[in-house]
Amino acid sequence: MLSIAIPVAFALLTAAQLLNLYRLLKGPTLLDRILALDTMYIDAIAMFILMGVFFHSAVYFEAALIIAVMGFIGTVATSKFLMRGDILE
Amino acid sequence: MTFVIELLVSFFLVMGAFFAMAGSIGSFRLPDFFSRLHGPTKSTTLGVGAMAIASAIYFSFHGEGISFHEVLITLFLFITAPVSAHFLAKAALHQGLHRKESSPETSRKSTDR
Q1: Which parts of the chain span the membrane according to its record (chain A) (predicted)?
Q2: What is the pLDDT of residue B104?
Q3: Residue of B5, B42, B44, B98 best to disrupt the A interface, most CBs of A under 10 A
Q4: How many domains does chain B have?
Q5: How far apart are CA B87 and CA B83, in angstroms?
Q6: Residue numbers in chain A where pLDDT is lower than 50
Q7: Do A13 and A32 form a contact (C-beta atoms < 8 A)?
Q8: Is residue A89 part of a domain?
Q9: B92: Cβ contacts below 8 Å, ≥ 6 apart
Q10: Residues from chain A contacting residue B94 (CB–CB below 8 Å)
Q11: A61 inside domain
């Protein structure tokens, strides 16, 4: 069962990443690109979790946690910069 | 017992990937920024949550002891995703982006009148 489910989930996540990449490259405004990057790192966390199940290894969770923290900080910093013209006031 | 666990893990994995895909389709197709904002920030968070549940079940039954790392990731994402969406929406308002006027809802209202 898992040997079917894991490739299906990988295929769906890859298609999702490609759609995000389209929005990242084309996006009419700067905020669309920021949103696409935000979605891409969340999907990357999902891919890392899936790889942890696939390779039966718990190493991937620390990487996923670091991606989560860094992506959140990046999104907040860029949108705050767009809002105020400054990150730390 | 093992088959039930495997079925549960497979179901949550495919469900999580499906919701991540649905959010990206929303970001791909919707017409303006504010409607594009709500697709990925909700459904992608749900997708990652379902995937973390699947991974927690899998490693609780195949590893040693109960596994809690994934719950940490889920908790962090559930706290931070609304915050970053709120910041993006505030930045969009500050930049003066508006919703597209020719969305289906408004055009239907104008034809009804």
Answers
A1: 34-56, 63-83
A2: 57
A3: B44
A4: 1
A5: 6
A6: none
A7: no
A8: no
A9: A29, A31, B33, B34, B37
A10: 82-83
A11: yes
